Amino acid sequence: MNDDTRPPLERPIIATIALLVFITHLVVNTVTPYGIHRDELLYAAMGQHLQLFRMDFPPGIALVANAERWLFGDSLLAIRLVPAIAGATIVLLAAAIGREFGGGRFAQTFAAVAVAVHPLFLRPGSLFQPVVLDQLWWTAAVLALARFGRTRDQRWWTTVGLIGGLGLLTKFSILLFGFGLLVALIVADRPVLRTAGPYRALAIALVLGSPSLIGQIRLGYPVVAQMGALRESQLVHVSYGLFLSWQLLLGPSLLLAAAGAVWLIRSPEARPFRMLGVTCLAVFTTLFLLHGKGYYVGPIYPTLFAAGAVWLGQAGASRAVRIGQAAAVTAVVGFGAFLLPIGLPILPPPLMARYAAAVGIAEATRTNRGTMLRLPQDYADMLGWEERVALVARVYDSLPPEKRAEAVLVGENYGQAGALDFYGPRLGLPPVVSAAGSYWFFGPGTKPGTVVISLGVSREDLETFFGTVTAAGRITNDWTVEEEQDLTVYVCEDPRETLQLLWPKLAGRN
User: Fold this and answer.
1) Strand, coil or helix: what is 196?
2) In terms of pLDDT, which residue wins out, 281 or 225?
3) Comparing C-alpha atoms, which of 318, 320, 304, 316 is closest to residue 270?
4) Contacts of 63 (CB under 8 A, 6+ apart)
5) Handedness of CA 403, 408, 409, 412 (dihedral sign)
6) Quick one: which of 259, 294, 295, 290 has its CA closest to 277?
7) Residues 366 and 356 sit within 8 Å (Cβ to Cβ)
8) Alpha carbon of 323 to those of 102, 107, 298, 319: distances in Å?
9) Beta strands at 451-455 and 466-476: parallel, antiparallel or unpaired
């Protein structure tokens, strides 16, 4: 197959859809009744503590956080600008994949629309997290592989390697894509393994993504401990049935994706792209067997949507087919519109709670630990951070000057620590330390901890480290996740040992 056989790229239509997605994110992030997400606070802190080759996580998100804050500032709109761009770009890539598969105007448009309207892509596009970038790199890699499949031009493996390196800088889940691709080459395109292309791609990816790998080596592979903690605290709640039931949240788009998978694997017309169908199937099966969260398979769906749209677009030109195509598009768009409040934070908490209860989709409000909230967890995690920091500031300001000079702030979890890091400086607060996750690797700072102001740590835990623990303030918020609903701020004195001596003992506590 050569370039001349491809249908033209429907640039005006696809660009319009992508632009509408981008504008929608900008508008929502301007008017949303919610604030910064817990994870966004962490990634901002990661940027502040950046050590490129000594991070316990892929440092790409920290680099982006620093660039955004330097260029655009700390507003919610600025923080979420890159995700908005990434979300719109995935729409473009899905349409381009449809074109590579041989799809014309209908297929390209439907592929773009299916991605544009679904919460699986809308919500990541409205949050500064690695998720949307992960989706972007997977989809971009598929486009490069589709072009290789069509042209057999070995140079596309260089592009795959560059994209893989960016993926490795973003999230280790790109390794799952690589595993799926290896399985696919063995099953569907074994002769490629006797060429230099895949190995060149692997070498480029490892070099470009080396900061992620070197950080793991230098710190003793913390990702292993992180995955173990994730498995024990969250993935243990994900049964096979729950994983499959989550896919039902795709609604009519699930049928489109299933049709796409069958077309990629079985259709003679899709023979050049069969490895992509097998890659998607291998990724899905692996996550299913490992009890991954349902949304972990999200990056495979732009490819499957595009393939399904091509299949439907090639069904013929009869009146019945046109009616079926119109019905499919209407169903996908209608379902996306129905779930729009799940995808974008547009409804204030009371209305969102009523909507979630009325919709009756339990998975929309299930937390990572299997409990149920009134709001989707992402929305609950966007509430109350600035107010908590303001309370800590009032406690800090109430201390005598000599105690303020020695004070250290402590957050029990990375959300609390990240909020203190983000909002604290503008309120004159001192630096923050925390033993939670990545924060432990940032260290205890230089102050010994003779005076500690603690947010979120229980009195019982504090009394094991301090002789004097005094409650100094309390804040409640029923809309947040459980651990943030009722918090007490404590002032702690008379430490049994300095923070510097204590710190090694706190490794792995969270």
Assistant:
1) coil
2) 281
3) 304
4) 47, 50, 52, 169
5) negative
6) 259
7) no
8) 21, 15, 29, 6
9) unpaired
Which distant-in-sequence residues (6+ apart) come within 8 Å of 382 by Cβ? Answer: 34, 35, 36, 37, 38, 345
409 contacts 420 by C-beta, under 8 angstroms = yes
Q: Rounded to two decimals, what is the model's pTM?
A: 0.94
Residue 55 to residue 182: CA distance in whole angstroms:
28
CB atoms within 10 A of CB 417: 28
Q: E strands, 240-283, where?
A: none
Strand intervals (E) in 203-301? none
Residue 338 sits at the vertex; the CA angle it makes with 333 and 344, to the nearest 5 degrees, is: 95
Of 111-120, 356-365, 375-384, the range with the lowest mean pLDDT is 356-365
Per-residue model confidence as pLDDT tens digits over 197-208:
999 999 999 999
pLDDT above 50 for 1? no
Residues counted in the chain: 510
Which positions ≥6 away from 390 have C-beta within 8 Å?
A: 423, 427
Bin 316: left if φ > 0, else alpha if -120 < ψ < 50, else beta.
left
Q: What would the mean pLDDT of 421-441 be, rounded to a whole number?
A: 94
- CA trace torsion 81, 440, 233, 61 (10° rounding): 20
d(CA 34, CA 67): 23
Question: How far apart are alpha carbons 55 and 66 in whole angstroms?
Answer: 15
Give, to the nearest 10 degrees, the angle between helix 197-208 and helix 210-218. Answer: 60
Distance CA 314, CA 273 (A): 16
Task: Please give the backbone phi and psi of residue 433, each rounded to the nearest 5 degrees, phi first.
Answer: -130, 155
Tokens 């802190």 sit on residue: 45
CA 337 to each of CA 124, 314, 350: distance values in angstroms, whole numbers, following the listed order: 17, 27, 20
* Amino acid sitting at position 379: Y
What is residue 140's predicted lDDT score, i.e. its pLDDT? 98
Q: Report how far residue 281's alpha carbon sits from residue 83's, in angstroms, rounded to the nearest whole number.
A: 27
Contact 29, 76 (CB under 8 A): yes
Helix H or strand E segment including 407: strand 407-411
Burial class of residue 69, CB neighbours in 10 A (0-12, 13-18, 19+): middle
Burial of 427 per CB tally in 10 Å (0-12, 13-18, 19+): middle
Q: What is the pLDDT of residue 232?
A: 72
The whole-number pLDDT of residue 446 equals: 93
Number of alpha helices (DSSP H) and beta strands (DSSP E) in the chain: 27, 5
How far apart, in whole angstroms, are the C-alpha atoms of residue 280 and residue 264?
10
